[in-house]
Amino acid sequence: SANPDIAAIQAEEDKVREKFHGIQQKLLHISTKQNTIHEKLKILHSVERSMVELQNEYDAKLGELKQNEEKLLKSLIERKTRRDKAVKVVKAEQSHHDWATAKLSYTIELAQQQQSVTDAAAAED
Description:
Blueprint: H1 2-124
């Protein structure tokens, strides 16, 4: 009767070993999955850091471009203002020139008329 007990104990030990071996296999599988997940998380964090760096670079470059655009716009406005003033000055100078020419022509005409009158009076004498 001692042999059947030993056989039963042996069979029970074998079942326990099988379960233990199964549990070990599951733990190994879980550990492998954890390592894979850990590696993927590292990659994900790296990508996230890169995205933040890219966003920062983009923001900085966009800021520079906006500043350059504003400087260029300001420069264009200043140039247009100077050009408009220059055009007004040229027009004013042309207008003054036209007036001075007309006045000179009138003065010459008057002088010629006066000379004609003077010459006619001298011829009468």
